[in-house]
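seq:
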Amino acid sequence: MNKIKTLDELAGIIQQFKKQGKKIVQCHGVFDLLHPGHIRHFESARKQGDVLIVTLTKDKYVNKGPGRPVFNQRLRAESIAALQCVDYVAINEWPTATNAIKKLKPDVYAKGSDYSDSKKDLTGEIRNEESAVRSAGGRIYFTDDITFSSTKLLNTHFSVYPEETDEYLRDFREKYTADQVIKYLKDLSRMKVLVIGDAIIDEYHYCKAMGKASKENIIPNRFLREETFAGGALATANHIAGFCRDVQLVTCLGSQNSYESFIKSRLKPNIKTKFFLREGTPTTVKRRFIEDAFLSKLFEVCFLDDRPLPEKLESKLHTYLKGIIKNFDLVLVGDFGHGFIEKNTVEFLARKANFLAVNAQTNSANAGFNLITKYPRADYICIDEPEIRLAAHNKFDNIENLITGIAKQVKYKKIIVTLGHKGSIGYSPKEGFSRAPVFSKEIVDRMGAGDAFISVTAPCSAAGYPMDVIGFIGNAVGAMKVLIVGNRSSVEPVPLFKFISTLLK
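struct:
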């Protein structure tokens, strides 16, 4: 008998069993590494009814960190189907089990004892699952037998990381538990955050190369499709709004094709907005042409006016900020060097902000003219290695010297420099240096990783968390962001919590 079925097939089979008066039991999970704990769980569940079905999380919905799942959905299904106590297996079509429960309508839904306290469930889905079971006339049952963590076993014996990363994680686990780090992040919800910076519309135009032109030294491309994202400070606000309930965004749009309606439709509902309108200019648009097969960026066309704001508009900005800035625990500056945040605004923010966090980017559009040293004070700085080297005018010195040297120009309390594939290094005069390795094993798109990093670490810094925790969280956020195309979505709390739990098991 072929035990592996589609959900539709399984629903029909279950109907026939129920007509025979048989009781259906359902288990659900990833079951990446089949172990004795799983087998005892299935055997215990099987005793609650006559037919045991197991539904599996689809590969694309498995959120347990790099390299997971170790075994693809077909192999996981085959392994479970080989067990005598299991009658049928199906791969779930949805991200969670709730819809599968509604479709199959089991009499008993069995979960492991580690899910018995719904308050400890990071996803909050156990409540939804229980509700779905009860709506179908069933009940939830928690098995209580020997338990193992697949993730812990895989981390211990089948790690996807190099030895230095494993060593870092072992040391970090001795100082902090996953629950402690997650609590740090949950506690950010009370923080009031003002995000100020450049609004950027990111366009991705996907193309397919057609081969070199015979008459000209160009490679023509066939246009396939396009996507438009809310980038720059807009993306920063979206990231941070997942962790902090009270977020306000202050930015500037152009009167020519402002994109205001588009921007409002892309921002999270808990973000309050204040848009200043600059006459006769466009809202900044960065149109990137992308080779579709491997998402390689071919070239970029920028539509922007990067001159400083007119004096009257800048004065209106400062008047508005004077009335609100002291209401915020954190002012987060996303400075892309496109004319919105210039000398007078920099000095204003440095004087007035309760806690000032800054990411001053050097990029192709500002030609390297936007340096962190234009800020006389920034309580928390987050920049990358090329940006600090440009600011220090030093190409070769070690990064530690550059970090301590920049303090002579910018008064800061904490700083993190991201180092690409080498991870990140953090520093505060009180705690000294702390390094964290990268946690990513796959990169889909690097764009916006720095914005996501500072979006979550800035409130951590404002809350006074230890530097090693901030670096760990930032690199976890970065590992998740590089799996997202552009700013198609933001880094959300629950997937981040699950990732952190995976790393620290």
